[in-house]
Every structure is written in C-alpha cells, then in structure tokens.
Amino acid sequence: MIEIDRLTKRYTLNGKNALDNLSYVSDTAAPLGIIGSNGAGKSTLFMLANGLTKPTSGKIKLFGEEVFGNSNVKKRTGLFTDKLTLYPMLTVKETISFFMGIYGISFKEYKEKVRLFHIDEFENSKIEDLSTGMMKKVMLLISILHTPSILFLDEPFSGLDVDAKNDLSKEIRYLSNEVGIKTVISSHDLWETQGIIQDVLIIEGGRNIESGNYQELIKKYSKTKKMQVICKNDPEILRLREDYRMEEEYGNIKISIGLDELHGFLSRVRRENVINIINNDMTLEDIYEEARKHAAIGND
Fold first, then answer.
1. 3-state class of 215 per DSSP?
2. Which residues pair with 210 in a beta bridge?
3. pTM of the model as a whole
C-alpha cells in the first residue's frame, strides 16, 4: 500500500537533505505512526506522499503507483494539517459546503457528513469562534470528505486539552476500524499515538532508524527497559552506587535498572532491603528513545 524506495528530498536553499535515502514498506491497512524529532523529515514525507512536492531522488508509491504527478493516486489520499487555511468569517456550514463543492459532493450528503463528528452541533458558528477541538473536527471532516483510502494526519493532537485529545483519538480510531481508512499519524504526542497505531516508523535525520509492528518492537526493546527498584536507605544499598544509578526519594533509594541487570542486583542485596520493584509497560516513547540510542551507537 505504501512503498518508499531510497527517497531523498534536498532543499536547494540550504543544501540540506530533509529525507536521506529513506526506505520503508507498509503493505497492510494497519494504522501507522511516524515519529521523530523536529526536523527529522516527517512533514516533508507527508508532502511527498500527497504529491505536494517532488522528490530529489528515489520513489514513493501508493497502491503500486508513483505519487507525484499522478492525479489518480491523489484522489485516494487525504491530508489533515493545521496549515489548512479557513476563512474566519465563514460559518462551519459554509466552509464544509465550499469543500464539498471542490470535491464534487452533492449537498444532499451534507447532513450525513456533519453528523459524523457531531459537527452539526456547532455548524452555524463562525470559524473564528471555534475552540481548537472544534476546529480540529472540522479539519478532520474536510480531509475525509472524498473518503480517501489513506489519511495522513500531521500533528493532530497539538494544542488540545486532555478531553479533546481523547475525543479526537476516538474519531481517528473510528475512521480506521469502522470506515476502513488507513491512518498514518505524525505526532509528538506519543501517548495518544500509541493507542491508535499498530505499526511504527521512526525517522531521524531523514533516515529510517527503526520500523516494524508496535507489539514486536515492545518485545525487542523490553530487555533494555529501565525498571525502578525502591530500596531502603541502607549502607548495603549505598555501597553499590558506583554500579547503579541511584537517587533519594521520600527517604528511600530509587534505582533505575535494566531488566537484564535485575537478577544480578538482587543477588547482591538482602531481600528485606528491597521495598518494591516497578515494571511499567513499555511505551512508544520508550521504544523511540531506545531506537535513537541504538542508532547513535551504530553511527559511532
């Protein structure tokens, strides 16, 4: 469904490669999360995937066809972005009607469309009067008016409070699970993202430093995950401070330790000095940080 083959995008103004020989393949409808630091190349990749700019070299294909200059492919993609400019003085109804006209969608379908994300509850409000959460719903609806096969969502959770994030997450999952749209999410909010995606692509410096199924990556990196061991503030524990990272917390000693180190540590201390062992689930952020560490080691 998505095939990226040695994709490079160089900006002539600064001579920098936004994407540098990037390759990746996703051949299922599973929702995909693309993560990376600022400047990693995520937004550039979204522009290329929607035919908004031409690659310097390499290819990006959707549905087996190259994207750039291919109107048939563009009809099957949607792009959710805060960079979409809406006229502030228009009402929500006028705005959506305008885009329906662009896509050639009959106004008879209007009521069905606006009910999708409960937009009918504020359809007569002006764009300038909308909250950030309402605005995101309008932009999400606009991005799927033509029922694309793939929807690219660029930073969908930015600027939202907790409740609005939860609402938007539910709506994105609905599009993926019920409507059958493949969702591709680029976001700094890894907590919300991990509740939606099944596959992961991690980009640094425009390159693929890690990719795969989310659950498989959890298994891969869980061996190196740092656990928290809470111990008594006892001389026996303090003698080991050169071997383990320790910090005082509420009068006790908290030690960050890898799962693979745990057995060795426990063999060196009396069990009565160990108060608790905290093993939190591995998160998408954990995988991201571990992948970056491994990539840095590989580049040394």
1. helix
2. 202
3. 0.83
- Structure tokens belonging to residue 132: 């950030």
Distance, CA of 6 to CA of 189 (rounded, Å): 28
For domain 226-281, is the CATH number 2.40.128?
Answer: no
For residue 155, the model assigns a pLDDT of 93
Q: What is the pLDDT of residues 140-191, one digit of tens each?
A: 999 999 999 999 999 999 999 999 999 999 999 999 999 999 999 999 889 9
202 and 32 Cβ atoms separated by less than 8 Å: no
**What's the distance, Cα to Cα, between the start and end of the chain in Å?**
35
Q: Say how far apart CA 85 and CA 253 lie, in whole Å.
A: 53
Burial class (CB in 10 A: 0-12, 13-18, 19+), 65: exposed
pLDDT band at 297 (very low <50, low <70, confident <90, very high): low
The residue ranges of every structural domain in the chain are 2-219, 226-281
Which tokens sit at 67? 């994207």
**Contact criterion met (CB below 8 Å) for 151 and 175:** yes
In whole angstroms, give the CA distance from residue 156 to residue 272.
48
Q: Tokens standing for 101?
A: 């006209």
Query: For 155, which DSSP code?
Result: S
Look up the CATH number of domain 2-219.
3.40.50.300
Dihedral, 69, 43, 99, 77 alpha carbons, nearest 10: 50
